[in-house]
Design brief:
Length: 398
């Protein structure tokens, strides 16, 4: 099978509108959480989010910007690959109509008039429209995968892109995720699920607290991360700068609850084990885990249990940190941020921190790299993403 490498990275996140500034923010332990500006949230219990700065809140736009950066970052020579062997695999949640749009449509239907809409309005609501725009960035005319697995979307997209190149179906794939769930309807929905924290509205930067004893829910975010994956042989032949190699991919389903992971780690254990097994590495070769780490009471316990089950005693020698402490939860793009954190850790031998970890939880006893980045030998890293609905994905990169 073909070996698969990462040759380009692009990002638009609450920490910056490119991959470099996003990594710098992660390394510095800087929070990108702020008061909500997408609507008047003054009457809402939740009034904070991880928002992209200086650009209108448009998930597909974030995705295209990240893809363009990834293509620039990859340099020249990839254009030699046949367009029909260039693929795209991207996770996205957006695409549903706004509530007011549905209300207006209901009124039209009730009046006995069939609703007529501009084609552009319909296309904007299709989840795959933004993915198609990303495909156009690199002239991808081969396999097209639009992933809808919520918080695991970018992880699954990268994993499936990995498979496309491994199996020889593609020489290049743009992969990642984009999302923006910061409208009033999104905030209301997550709040009704009791998934969001509402305790830090006056101190937004302190709101996302993975693994902290006083965590009370996640902070929603928005943004995109896109990477260029490439057949290693072709990348070497064109003199590309190889940023990392993807070695393993695991994907499972809990089928437990919509919003919770099983306390023992359940399917996450199997996903991590599958990724490690495919990588060919020993568990002791992995030095860093970019954790899903949402800051919900249940997720952090479940993920910690899963890491212990997979790594055994080595779990206590791992560095485990959550980028969500700084960016908030970018839903379908979340695993992309974790991958970016892992790439930075491998490149600079520096592990980004889990900020706001001020009150250790006695049930959570791993090394979560509290508050400050740490210089550390990182030979290989694991990227985790565990989604609503019970979908799990893990990647191993080196």
């Amino acid at each position: 099978m073909k070996r698969v490498v990462i040759t380009g990275v692009g990002a638009v996140t609450p920490l910056g509108n490119d991959a470099v500034s996003t990594w710098q923010g992660l390394r510095a332990g800087r929070s990108g959480i702020s008061r909500l500006t997408t609507f008047d949230a003054s009457t809402f219990d939740v009034r904070i989010a991880g928002q992209v700065k200086g650009i209108r809140s448009d998930a597909a736009l974030f995705g295209v910007m990240a893809a363009r950066e990834a293509v620039r970052d990859a340099g020249n020579g990839w254009q030699e690959i046949d367009p029909y062997r260039r693929g795209v695999a991207v996770g996205a949640t957006v695409g549903r109509p706004e509530l007011q749009e549905l209300v207006d449509m209901s009124a039209v239907v009730a009046a006995g008039v069939f609703p007529v809409q501009e084609p552009a309005a319909v296309r904007r609501r299709e989840q795959n429209t933004g993915v198609a725009a990303i495909a156009d960035v690199a002239g991808c005319r081969g396999p097209f995968i639009s992933v809808s697995t919520a918080c695991a979307g970018a992880g699954h997209a990268v994993g499936e892109a990995f498979r496309l190149i491994q199996d020889g179906d593609c020489g290049l794939v743009l992969a990642g995720g984009f999302d923006s769930l910061t409208s009033w309807l999104d905030i209301l929905g997550f709040s009704l699920l009791r998934a969001l924290t509402s305790e830090y509205n006056s101190e937004p930067e302190r709101g996302s607290r993975p693994f902290d004893a006083r965590r009370s829910g996640f902070v929603v975010g928005e943004g995109a991360v896109v990477v260029m994956l490439e057949d290693r042989e072709h990348a070497l032949a064109r003199g590309a700068r190889i940023q990392a190699e993807i070695l393993g991919y695991g994907s499972t389903l809990n089928a437990y609850r919509i919003t919770d992971s099983p306390p023992d780690g359940g399917g996450a254990v199997a996903a991590m084990r599958d990724a490690v097994a495919e990588s060919g590495l020993a568990i002791t070769d992995i030095d860093y885990v970019a954790a899903h780490g949402t800051g919900t009471p249940g997720n952090d316990v479940s993920e910690t249990a899963a890491i212990k089950e997979v790594f055994g005693e080595h779990a206590y020698r791992l560095a485990v940190s959550s980028p969500k402490s700084m960016t908030g939860h970018l839903t379908s793009a979340a695993a992309g941020v974790n991958l970016l954190a892992a790439l930075g850790a491998l490149r600079e031998q520096t592990v980004p921190p889990t900020i706001n970890l001020e009150h250790p939880d006695p049930k959570l006893d791993l090394d979560y790299v509290p508050r400050h980045a740490r210089k550390l030998r990182v030979r290989a890293a694991m990227v985790n993403a565990f989604a609503f609905g019970g979908t799990n994905v893990s990647l191993v990169v080196a």
